[in-house]
Amino acid sequence: MEMQQEQQQDFMRTRSVPLLVFTMALPMTLSMLVNSLYNIVDSYFVARISESAMTALSLVYPVQNIVTAVTVGFGIGVNAAISYFLGAREQKNADSAATAGLILNIVHGAILTVLFIAIMPWFLGMFTDDSQIFSMGLQYANIVLLFSIPIGAGMSMEKIFQATGLMKTSMFCMLCGCATNLILDPLLIFGIGFFPELGIRGAAIATGTGQVVALLVYIIFYFARGISVRFSWGSLRGAKSVCGRMYAVGIPAALNLALASVTVSALNAILSAFSSSYVLVLGAYYKLQTFLYLTANGIVQGMRPICGYNYGAKEYRRVKKIFWVGLLFIAVVMLVGTVLCLTIPGALIGIFTENSETVAIGAHALRIICAGFIVSAVSVTVSGTLEGLGKGVTSLVISVLRYVAIIIPAAFILSRFIAADGVWNAFWVAELVTAAVAALLFARVARRELRD
User: pTM of this prediction?
Assistant: First the structure.
């Protein structure tokens, strides 16, 4: 294990930065692409049930996103802490962060299960009075939320493996979960072969089963091959300061991710005043944009541990170079997304509905929203880099601007003048303003923390 850790230290410090970012980010980017693809396929099969089923899925999405936000966000805190301790050669603290991080995220999952199952009827009732949509939403949510505990454990394992440089292993585990979901979706939704026809409940079971499979594969790899941190009860002694470090990054990171749920719920409330078709379009957009932003997040996940590692090793020049290389890669991803939304918007929305009027509304929306894609690369890259440096609060400021402070007021005000188009235009307005603020904040942190 000591030899493995030493090799990792040489790998993180000495490899060419563009090659290092590429090799660390590529496995995560590919897995994120597949992850977003199975999300889209999931929605595709649900949309084949009915447009009401797709609308129900869109209404449940914000709650699902909060579960993901809390577990992934805390996992980011675990990742940042382990990366830093390994870079500083503090093995005991790295082991402590891994053990406590896994246990605490299981607790987070248990709390979220109880809380959200209890409030789900009230939550859905705020956005629809259609009994069919309400019933479908409740069926899906009550099943998928039962998997919050394995989701919490799986997210911690994912971030722990990534922090130790095992990106390919993490990619393989995620792919196992994605493949399971892809296979089970049509079988359980439509009752193919000996499988029962469960409709939207089948989609929830397939999604949760995929998460469980990914977790099991992580556990198998840990015991079969080992990693450069160890899980042990003994490492929890004196873990208070380590937990503080994880939550210092994890809480802002979770809030960063959870803010998207606030945005979706607020925009759903604005759009529902015009037509339920707009709610479906917003839900379809968020499914599509996961394909884009999860790809960018794959690059960020590759950057984050090497930023933290080199920051802990006081290799500040390399940290800044990692930032610029990551920004270039993410900007290219956003350019591809922009081109697709401008050239084939109708085909993209057509994945989720066969209603020609809804497709036309969605295509129009995508052409407007995509104006903010490329500039958003700045805020995405800055946020990920700051989390890698342990600056979770500064990263949170960027996300508050992006998801709440600008887009929601802009959407509300503009919708008073240009109806639903005001909501679509609010996206690029928020991205432009946030990118400018993010650039200023990163420049300030770099001057103070990354001086050569």
Answer: 0.71
Convert 334-365 to b/e letters by CB count within 10 Å (16 or more is b). Answer: beebbebbeeebeebbbbbbeeeebbebbbbb
Q: Residue holding tokens 């000591």?
A: 2
Give the pLDDT confidence of 307-346 residue by residue, as tens digits. 878 887 788 888 888 899 999 999 999 999 999 999 999 9
Q: How far apart are the first and last CA of the chain?
A: 32
Distances (CA, A) of 411 to 1, 88, 241: 53, 46, 42
Quick one: which of 408, 291, 427, 413 has its CA closest to 365? 427
HSE-CB at 309 with a 13 A cutoff on CA atoms is 27
Please name the helix (run of DSSP H) or strand (run of DSSP E) that holds residue 250, with its range, or none: helix 240-271
pLDDT at 57 exceeding the cut of 90: no
Residue with tokens 């909060």, as numbered in its chain: 66
CA angle 161, 216, 78 (to 5 degrees): 30
Distance between CA 70 and CA 251 in Å, rounded? 8
Contact (CB, 8 A) for 202 and 185? yes
Which residue in this structure is represented by tokens 């939207």? 200
Q: Is the Cβ–Cβ distance between 393 and 253 less than 8 Å?
A: no
- Which tokens go with 238? 């004196």
**Number of Cβ within a 10 Å radius of residue 220:** 12
Average pLDDT, the chain: 85
pLDDT of residue 5: 47
Alpha-carbon span 10 to 24, nearest angstrom: 14
Identify the top-confidence range among 28-37, 92-101, 104-113, 122-131: 104-113
What is d(CA 45, CA 190) in angstroms, rounded to the nearest whole number? 9
* Residue 38 scores a pLDDT above 70: no
Tell me the residue length of the chain.
452
- Give yes or no for residue 187 having a pLDDT over 50: yes
Minimum mean pLDDT range among 187-201, 267-281, 354-368:
267-281
165 CB-contact burial (10 Å; exposed 0-12 / middle 13-18 / buried 19+): buried
Reduce the DSSP state of residue 272 to 3 states and report it: coil
Residue type at 421 in one-letter notation: D
